[in-house]
Amino acid sequence: MSTLATNKIGTLAGTADMSLPTTRPSSTKSAFLDSAGNLTFEETSIPVEFFVADGTAFVSSVLVDTAYLTSAGYPASVFTNGGGVSSFIYGVRLGMWNLSDAIKTNYLFQKNLRWFELNAWGNGNADNSSYWCLNILNPSGGMLYTQNQSMGQKHFSLDGNTSTSQGGNMTTQTWYSGAAGTNQYGGILSSRSLNSGSTEPSPWSVRTRIKAAVNYGFRIDAEGTISNSNSYGPDYTYKTWCPRVDQNIDDTTLTRGGPWGDFGGFYFGTSQENSDYAPAAQFGSFVLKAQIKPTAVVLT
Amino acid sequence: MTVRTEKIQSLTGSAPLTLPKTLPSSKTNLKVDSSGNLTTSSVSPTFSSLGKAGETGWVLLGSTQTNDFSNGCEVSIEGSGYSGSDIYMYRIEFDIEGNRSQNSGNNFMIAPYAGTTNISNAYFSYNGFYNRNNSTGNGAYNTGAQTGTYNGYEMYFASNFSGNSNGSYDYESMFDPAGGNENYSYKGGMRGNIRYYNGAGMRAFQIDPVGLYCDEWNSSYYNNSQGYYFKQIFRKGQTKYNNATNSSFADKFRIHNASYSGGNNGAGNSSFFQRGMMTLYGIPKTG
Q1: With an 8 Å Cβ cutoff, is B10 touching chain A?
Q2: Which of A77, A116, A216, B135 is deepest in the core (most CB within 10 A)?
Q3: By CA distance, what is B172's nearest residue in A?
Q4: Looking at the structure, do residues A33 and A141 belong to the same domain, yes or no?
Q5: Distances (CA, A) of A111 to B188, B230, B281
Q6: What letter does residue A262 receive in the DSSP assignment?
Q7: Same domain, A84 and A26
Q8: Per-residue pLDDT of chain B (287 residues; tens, 9 = 90+)
Q9: Nearest neighbour of A57 by CB, restricted to B48, B93, B95
Q10: Strands (E), A18-171
């Protein structure tokens, strides 16, 4: 620091001596001025949620990605299935690919990552008879499962007015090598539908956590609230139909790089590529965070 | 006043700034507009404190990882610079596994401590979280605090966590790309959050209605090399505390199977052990 006596410069009317940084930051950062006149920059531009109060700051939670839906509804996303057919489906994608390499290197590295948690809330006012999917993606933002892998299919229901039984395999909602226009996608986690046969999708919420597990790669938790009728609310405000994971999803066709070498984010949207199934007016907010072992802040 | 920064400190830029004439009373964000006016914000969030001035908000107080099955898992504020009386609300984030086999499940309870003393306010059976596959009734408040050092508890989390007793990998191996590749190695457990009010008047667990999960291994769903399914969880209502006290403040939390934790002179019964990760957050009473 060099002390700049601002009250000795200019009009000499001030009483605000300031100690300025001797170097500029390498990138744009927030700055602070304290009561002693010290002008400082933030230590890092990495978004973090919690710190140890005293001593060295630690990061335990990292904001990975966010997405929002406006009145335009779901945007179209291009996916390529196992048959090499690319087509549009309608949904949002959140994942690590939007993060800087510094964040991934310093915080979200193998063995430091514990789990990802996706929180989503939304509302809509248009009918949609498509299944509503939550699927897991690879680090590049593509589908983690790129062929008809029954072992990759998990099902849970957030429909509050249906039975309480656990979901089974999503055998009809499989990623498979069909012709363009007939492909269906998803099935990892799926509600029965956002608004099957009804006129008003109720406000809904979903929380999903994906955690590493030995061998098969992941444990996936999910819960949420939704009603499939505009006459009734969910039977249980917080009823959880968790996915039954009944087969090994550590498929030999995956290039194994540890659990976080495979997983990269979530897809959330409709299960079919037909635009008729894209909610015309779906509002939503999505926040994806990663929980890590408390890690010292790395200055960048 | 205008300070030509390029003329001061040998800076080579051409960015005339208009500096403030007075200093803020506390550390405050700065703003610079396109005319070079450097001003302080009307509010004073800082990088590590995104709340109102003087309030720290949630801070990370401690984190533990127990790799091998042990007689309970604990996390405390030791080393954080805070004491129990500094914190009026805790949030305990956990990922705990049990070592019981299918159809012989493990039960998880939680207890608050002040140092090594269990300070549970009474105890509750089947409050908080409970396996949907079992009874849906709330358990009653039980008279008398269960304050045994090892076998006491305040909240009965949930029951019958079962996995498969096979498998030799430890907790850390799950996160290791070079981790194990074992058949039948799944362990049942639970993950989530619970809060604990530690302020004046009383201490009490607060059920977080979302964000808790548990699962168990079940051979009925066995296929290929692994099989498990997730239980369905009820968030049950909290039975009231009839005799909550606040004679001391909590600074540590322990998740264990209270029925078996106190045996063997405190060594516990190794057939009902736990392992995993616990992270403790808190809101200090002062910033």
Answers
A1: no
A2: A116
A3: A111
A4: no
A5: 21, 24, 22
A6: H
A7: no
A8: 455 554 554 444 556 677 777 887 766 767 777 777 777 765 433 444 344 455 567 888 999 999 999 999 999 999 888 899 999 899 999 999 888 887 777 888 889 999 999 988 877 766 555 554 444 444 555 555 667 777 788 887 777 777 776 667 888 887 876 655 555 566 778 888 888 999 777 788 876 655 566 666 655 544 333 344 445 455 555 566 766 667 789 999 999 998 899 888 889 999 999 999 999 999 888 64
A9: B48
A10: 18-20, 31-33, 39-41, 58-69, 76-80, 86-95, 113-124, 132-137
**Residue B259 belongs to what H/E stretch?**
helix B258-261
Chain B residues whose CB is inside 8 A of the A37 CB are 23
Q: What is the pLDDT of residues B110-150, one digit of tens each?
A: 899 999 999 888 777 665 555 544 444 445 555 556 677 77
* Residue A47 lies inside a defined structural domain of this protein: no
**Do residues A73 and A36 share a domain?**
no
Give the closest residue to B118 by CA, choosing from B203, B211, B218.
B203
Do A25 and A171 belong together in one domain? Answer: no
CB spacing of B28 vs A111 below 8 angstroms:
no
ipTM of the complex in this document: 0.73
Contact B3 A223 (CB under 8 A): no
Tell me, yes or no, whether A283 lies in a domain.
yes
With vertex at residue A7, the alpha carbon angle to CA A4 and CA A8, rounded to the nearest 5 degrees, is: 75
Measure the CA–CA gap between A174 and A196, rounded to whole angstroms. 19
The first and second tokens of residue A125, run together, are: 């006012």
pLDDT tens per residue across span A232-282: 555 433 333 444 333 334 444 333 444 566 678 888 776 566 666 665 556
Residues A32, A87 within the same domain: no
Cβ neighbours around B261 below 10 Å, total: 26
Contact B156, B107 (CB under 8 A): yes
Tally of domains within chain A: 2
Residue A136 to chain B, least CA–CA distance (Å): 18
Same domain, A34 and A108: no
Q: Do A247 and B224 touch (CB under 8 A)?
A: yes
For residue A158, the enclosing domain spans: 58-296
Tally the C-alpha atoms within 13 A of residue A97's C-alpha that lie toward its C-beta.
Answer: 14
CB contact under 8 A, A60 and B63: yes
Q: Does B47 touch chain A (CB under 8 A)?
A: yes
Is A261 contained in some domain? yes
Given a contact cutoff of 8 angstroms between Cβ atoms, the answer to whether A51 and A58 are in contact is: yes
CB-nearest partner of A32 from B1, B27, B229: B27
